[in-house]
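no rush on this but wanted to send it before i forget. what follows is a protein written twice so to speak, once as letters and once as structure tokens for the fold. mainly i need to know what kind of three dimensional shape the backbone takes. thanks a lot i owe you, the record is right below.
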Amino acid sequence: INEICVQLKAQCDLQNVPYDGIFAALEAGKIDVIAAGINITDERKQNYLMPGPYLRGPLAFIVPAKSTIEGSPASLKGKTVGTVGGSVFEKYMREKLGSGTTVKTYDSMDAAVLDLDAGRVDAVLGEEPQLLVSYIQAKPNTYKVAGSPITDPVYMGQGKGLVVRKADTSLAEGVNKAIDSMITSGKLAEISTKWFGKALPAR
């Protein structure tokens, strides 16, 4: 968001707003843009303008650093895999891994990773950016991503975007142009590498 402000030549006042009140704050005019890793959905686009995407977070399996699991359905046969219940991650596993893999669901990603630490699951499926920052970078040499990230658009969705009010069309257009410029110049890839350790896909 800081780079978008630079691109727009705007003096931005960044505020921390609790997630459960962030859309209400936007609608009340207390903030002008939401930049909180919001997934672009058709439902949200009915009520807001969503410039972007600026990030398309692939799905990935996280495993202990010494694990031999490769992330493929074959390598997960006979294994127990954890993820957040009711999520697109659970949907992927139930549709793609088959009956040979046991799916265990949790209320949060942290809870799933705690069971990974305890050996109660063999792998955890989540969104690669979160896994990289919250677990792999936070505890070096403890975890790794198994195999290649999953980039199937059916499960990745439309990517992450910013959120502005429907009436603020000029602001939304400006943010989109800023994102386009950052992609073209390589600045977005540079920022992604800084925070995630690799250039994640934007679009």
Observations:
- The chain has a mean pLDDT of 92.
- The two ends are 17 Å apart (CA to CA).
- The chain has nine helices and eight strands.
